[in-house]
Amino acid sequence: MTHLYYVLTARCNQVCSICPRGNKKRDKDVAPDISIQALKKVLDENNITDITVSGGEPTLYPDLRSVIKMLDNNHINTAILSNSMKFSDIEFTRSIFSDVSDKSLFGVVTAIHSLNKLLHDEVTHVRGSFEKSVEGLNNLLTLGIDVSVKCIINKRNLHEIENYTAWVKDNIKSRVGLIFCGMDYVGIKPELIPNYQYDTLELKVCLERALDNALEIWGEDAYKLVSVGELPLCSTDPYYWKFFRPASNARHYYMDARSSKNIESQKDYGRYSSKCRRCKVYNYCNGVWRTQYETSGDQLMIPFV
Q1: How far apart are CA 259 and CA 8, in angstroms?
Q2: 256: domain CATH number?
Q3: pLDDT per residue over 169-178, tens digit each?
Q4: Computed over its alpha carbons, how large is the radius of gyration of the chain?
Q5: Structure pTM?
Q6: What is the b/e burial string over 219-231, where b = at least 16 CB atoms within 10 angstroms of the residue's CB?
Q7: Which domain does 60 fall in, by range?
């Protein structure tokens, strides 16, 4: 598999306090949009099988419909990282996917930062963003586009992650993907990082409870619908490892408007601790975000020896 992480635009309609790209409030602060021709060149010259379309907020790209059509024509598995606010407009959503012949190639991933509407909006700095994102997810499902809700685990939402499966069941029109993942601190000011750091043992209790609830609500289907990423296997008891994304040898490329060509990206997460090399499941674990290890160190790791 060859994967391309494609930053379509750096513009965004939210100003999230935990955004890995930092807080860019003014147009002059952000990079220019990438050209469709640049993407076409990359697809023509490389055996890209999977792509993540990101930003910024990709729905702000003026000709997103043409990008989607190109990816559909090339039969590329596509994950769109979006806050889904613009998808709350059903006509906009319908137009974006109107030329798609195989909707199974596409999925939209949206972060719900808290099940508390006010706390979610506090993160995004946009009043009403919670309701718009939920409406957008339901519009996508109505049009046959798969969606996933992403929970970026941090100290502020740690004790509510156990309720995410029930919330998804009650608020989204059909069963959808649910992703629990660690937080990349790269866009957060160093002095603010302690506001988001959690205790490793506390994470274990809360994450296991969340996965137990997923199994109780969805049964065996939970293993298809729920995944854990950017967290080490030692975050939970081995009983739960079936939920974790397996380590991959896929080639990863990164591209944005400042890249003269696609470049092979460095992995921003991995097994950085010396403890990890003693672990019996070292080869199966994806590790943690580099920024998490740099700020929290070895306390994140409890190797199986």
Answers
A1: 12
A2: 3.20.20.70
A3: 999 877 799 9
A4: 19
A5: 0.92
A6: eeebeebbbbebb
A7: 2-270
